[in-house]
């Protein structure tokens, strides 16, 4: 699966937006004399899941520096239709959120928050092992922005894990350009232990 084939799915999922690719005023694009080198992503593993959030750890190495212009998106989706599809079919499909029964992702704010935490990558050319906390999306969002079908919690079973790392080579204006888009997808089996506090 190439970056060019994955790009439309990222755009559809809201991973790539003008806001995520526009640099902060002090940030500059990657050194124009440096050629883009795709990131190395060894893994993105689901470590722990509960009713409201999940913990994911990823090992990666990316290049270009200018970390203010990087963006990381992490997603875990689950549902019978997702379970029935192969990883290749899931990667090639657009709109997998629409067939999800549960979806935790890094675009969801923590409980009580109004904005999600902006996740960035350290693209200094060295290996990093970063931990991420992602939160449960309560409802799918309709095209008009209103709340749609409610979503449940992750359960023990197969999930579709999406880890997307957008480095500083990504174009802030041309969203059809796959340069700077790096990803690691998997379909592991997770074990969920829900703890009820009384």
Descriptive overview:
With 198 residues, this protein is mainly β. It has one domain. The protein is built from four helices and eleven strands; from the N terminus they run ααβββααββββββββ. The strands form three sheets. The protein has a seven-stranded antiparallel sheet. Strands 6-7 form a two-stranded antiparallel sheet. It has a two-stranded antiparallel sheet with strand order 8-11. Strand 1 and strand 2 form a beta hairpin. It is globular and about 45 Å long. It starts with a helix and ends in an 8-residue tail after the last strand.
The low-confidence parts are 1-5, 17-28
H/E element sequence: HHEEEHHEEEEEEEE
The strands making up the biggest β-sheet line up spatially as 1-2-5-4-3-9-10
Question: In one word, what is the shape?
Answer: globular
> How many beta-strand segments?
11
Q: How many helical stretches?
A: 4
Helicity level? 10-25%
Number of domains: 1
Main sheet makeup: 7 strands, antiparallel
Radius of gyration, in Å, reads 17 Å
User: Strand-residue fraction?
Assistant: 25-35%
Give the structural class.
Answer: mainly beta
Mean pLDDT: 85
Cα separation of the termini: 47 Å
User: Which oligomeric form is depicted?
Assistant: single chain
């Amino acid at each position: 699966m190439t970056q060019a084939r994955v790009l439309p799915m990222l755009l559809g999922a809201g991973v790539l937006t003008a806001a995520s690719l526009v640099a902060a005023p002090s940030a500059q694009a990657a050194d124009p004399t440096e050629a883009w080198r795709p990131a190395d992503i060894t893994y993105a593993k689901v470590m722990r899941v509960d009713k409201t959030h999940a913990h994911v750890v990823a090992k990666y190495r990316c290049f270009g520096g200018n970390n203010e212009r990087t963006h990381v998106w992490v997603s875990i989706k689950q549902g019978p239709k997702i379970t029935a599809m192969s990883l290749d079919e899931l990667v090639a499909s657009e709109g997998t959120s629409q067939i999800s029964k549960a979806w935790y992702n890094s675009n969801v704010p923590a409980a009580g928050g109004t904005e999600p935490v902006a996740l960035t990558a350290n693209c200094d050319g060295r290996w990093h092992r970063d931990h991420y906390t992602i939160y449960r999306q309560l409802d799918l969002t309709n095209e008009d922005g209103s709340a749609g079908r409610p979503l449940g919690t992750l359960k023990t079973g197969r999930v579709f894990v999406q880890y997307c790392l957008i480095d500083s080579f990504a174009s802030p204006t041309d969203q059809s350009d796959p340069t700077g888009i790096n990803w690691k997808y998997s379909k592991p089996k997770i074990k969920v232990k829900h703890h009820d506090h009384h």
